[in-house]
Amino acid sequence: MSVEQEVLDANQNFYQAFNRGDLALMQSVWAQHDSVSCIHPGWEVLRGFDAIISSWENIFVGSENLEIKLSDILVTGAKGMVWVSCQENLFAMSMSGVQVSKVHATNLFEQVEGQWKMVLHHASSVPQLSRQEQINTN
Amino acid sequence: MSVEQEVLDANQNFYQAFNRGDLALMQSVWAQHDSVSCIHPGWEVLRGFDAIISSWENIFVGSENLEIKLSDILVTGAKGMVWVSCQENLFAMSMSGVQVSKVHATNLFEQVEGQWKMVLHHASSVPQLSRQEQINTN
Fold first, then answer.
1. What are the pLDDT digits (tens) for A35-56?
2. Nearest Cα to B75, choosing from B18, B6, B121, B15?
3. Interchain pair B41, A124: CB under 8 A
4. Which end of chain B has fewer CB atoms at under 10 Å, N or C?
5. What residues of chain B lie within 8 A of the CB of A122, using their CB?
6. Between chains, do B80 and A80 touch, taking CB under 8 Å as contact?
7. Under an 8 A CB cutoff, do A81 and B78 touch?
8. B3-135 has which fold?
């Protein structure tokens, strides 16, 4: 399997963990360094495996109606470290319809004992967020 | 010189280029790949050296009254690729005083022919932005 495909799979596992609210899978995605970092949109930076997993645990409590579909995926890197740049299209389902928010993510992976592990997730809203599409399902 | 110090110097050159509006220095900071990426706070992602340098050229036209001072600087990485996580404290000087905005930046560097070159700048507002400190200089 090519490095690009391996990293895309690791990236896919990250979003599958989010979409399923699967904490064990989320734990397996991240490198267990103190210096791993996670920036949720509009949050302060979180550092260290424990703080990051704890934040996902809290997020998963209220995320049953959220789903991320990716677009604009680009894999770049060299020499044992690779990052994925992608757009997160976040679908929020509610009684009144579906809201779509757009977030830009930088996901950095490092090769740890032959496996690609996430060492940085930096996510931030893109301008469209203020002009959220409303897809009325009524 | 340690890798950490070399990367901190490269990171410092990036912010010196901004604070001085020095386009030649900004050009020297970046790797000249098509896949380099830059995300200014709230902007769409820019890809490629030319698009990124062009954006800085436009930003520098109106940035004489802007200055960035860094805090919370952390250098992390391995194997030819290193990233700097830092908080940009952006000071905007005007007649009515000084406004401080806080931005979180991920700056990723790759070693190119012995020199550390920026391959990614991802900057996004942190929550304090909506509660901007007002330092009245009157």
1. 889 999 888 889 999 999 999 9
2. B6
3. yes
4. C
5. 104, 106, 122, 124
6. yes
7. yes
8. Nuclear Transport Factor 2; Chain: A, (3.10.450)
